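PROTEIN DATA CARD
Card holder: EamA domain-containing protein
Chain length: 249
Origin: Aphanomyces invadans
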Amino acid sequence: MPLVHHTPPPPSRKVEENTSLLVDSNTRMPSLPHPHRLLGLSMVAFASFLISIMSACVKFEGSAGSLSSMETVFWRCAISYIYIVVLALFWRVDLVVPREFHWDLTWRCIYGFVTCGTLFWTIKEMTLADAHVLAFTSPILTFFLGAWLLGEAIGAIEFGCAIVSLAGVVCVCQPAFLFGAGDLSASTMNPYAPWGGIVSAILIALTYVHLHKLAELHYVVVTHYFLLTSAAGAGLWVLFIEDKVSGMP
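Structure generated from the sequence above:
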């Protein structure tokens, strides 16, 4: 019987065949590129700029008197919800939320809806700059809530700056027990408007705390349920409650 001569494989193929399919634990895997450290700060600044433009539009629409606060919340959230659904379909994001995130997501949606209503009402009732001062005190409140609820450390310098910022908020609100009652009849501002801004700032801070706990969820999922809740809540308010509330803006 003739001997069959076997041709050895080329070196490159031989190396591939001898390579293990299992990853060695001592082998360093290539790490994913980290985003620039200023990317997050830039996105926050850009978001604040867009919020300022939105607030100016709310104030302009409120001056015209064509829509109430809850109607503005409805259209703002309903249109945004359409965009976020398209984005979720395009990216094929799974909108199913694990059970461990249900509680925090529920409170995030409730706080967000009430925040939109109180903030838009405050913007329409107050000077736009003063309303923004009150609303943007939420990072200060988040600073204290983070230390209380999340156990984050507080430095002496940060604590002093927070106290000074809160003193500025007091100057904007001008409570009667510090500044006197004044002549309220000469002012066109609703006396309850500053308190609406404070409530919205507190709720925004609580929203940030729950968003911190929802960090493992895709941001499209969180935004989807927030906009859905706000649009549904505002729509139900306009249909069944708004006409029955006297003095509703």
